[in-house]
Each structure stands twice: as structure tokens, then as C-alpha cells.
Amino acid sequence: MTRDRYLGILLMIAALFLGIVTVQIDYTPMTDDPGPKLFPLFACTILVLCGLGLLIQSKKNQKKQVFQKGYWIKLALVFAGLIAYGLMLWLIGFKIATPIMLFFFYWQMSQKGQFSLFRALIYTAITFAIIYSFFQYVLGSYLPEGILY
């Protein structure tokens, strides 16, 4: 099996698990608030589509590729980053946790030897401004403030 197939299957399993957990969220609806289920279900849908895309594309490219140790470490770091982000949202809130997460993911996605601190800070600031503006002003959503912040 190729690396793309492994990743596609892993993305779809993660989306299924996260979708099941999301559906079990209990909340009291407010006036026009879409609720806490909307974004996670949207993200799960995107993960499934990406996983299917990788499976379909990997059938076209049958070259044997196996994960190397470095890929497993990066994959583990990304999943640990997602878990840490969830904890940080709870502890310190959206405004502090999200830029940290964005910077971390930019660092993880950069090629070896191609990381630029200045560029990472600029991309983090721009991406955070877009995400914050979208949730705050377009959706009018409540953003977590954290228990320590």
C-alpha cells in the first residue's frame, strides 16, 4: 500500500471518530448561534473528502512508497498538536491558542531547512486575522475565552 492510501484511510478513520464524538455534543441553542456541532462536522466532511481524494489518486500512482521514520514523527506531532490545541482552547482561549497552533502547524508543514521565522510570524498573523474576523464578524460566533484568560 502506498503512503497516500495510508494517509487517506487514516484521515477517514479520524473523521469518523471525530464525527461520532461531535454528534454526541449536547448544547442549548441560542438565538442565531449555529452551535458547537457545525464547524467540527464541516471539518469532518473535508477530512473525508481529502481521504477519498488520496485514495483515488493513489490508485493512479501505484508506485510503492512507505512511511519513513520522519513522517511518523511529524504525523504524531501534528496529532499531538491538535490535542494540545483543544486543551489550550479550554485553558487560555481562542485568541491565544489559535496563533500558537497556527505557528506550530506552519513549522510542521515547512520543508526541512526551509523554515523562516519571519515568514511564519507573518503567515500566522494574517491567517489568525482572517479566521478571527470570519468567526467574530461574519458568523457572529462565540469564541472560547479559556479558564485562565
What is the fold's blueprint, element by element?
Blueprint: H1 3-23, H2 38-60, H3 69-92, H4 94-109, H5 117-138
Helix pairs in contact: 1-2, 3-4, 4-5
Structural summary, described in words:
With 149 residues, the chain is an all-alpha fold. It has 2 domains: 1-66; 67-149, no CATH class. It is 71% helix and 0% strand. The chain is built from 5 helices and no strands. The longest helix is centred in the middle third of the chain and has 24 residues, at 69-92. The termini are far apart. 9% of the residues are buried. The mean pLDDT is 82.
Which spans have pLDDT < 50 for at least 5 consecutive residues? none
Helix content: over 70%
Overall structural class, as computed from helix and strand content, comes to: mainly alpha
Termini distance? Answer: 46 Å
Gyration radius, rounded:
18 Å
Biggest sheet details:
none
The count of DSSP E runs of length 2 or more, i.e. the number of strands, is 0
Indicate the overall shape.
globular
The number of domains = 2
Mean pLDDT: 82
Strand content: under 5%
**Total helical segments:** 5
Q: Write down the secondary-structure element order.
A: HHHHH
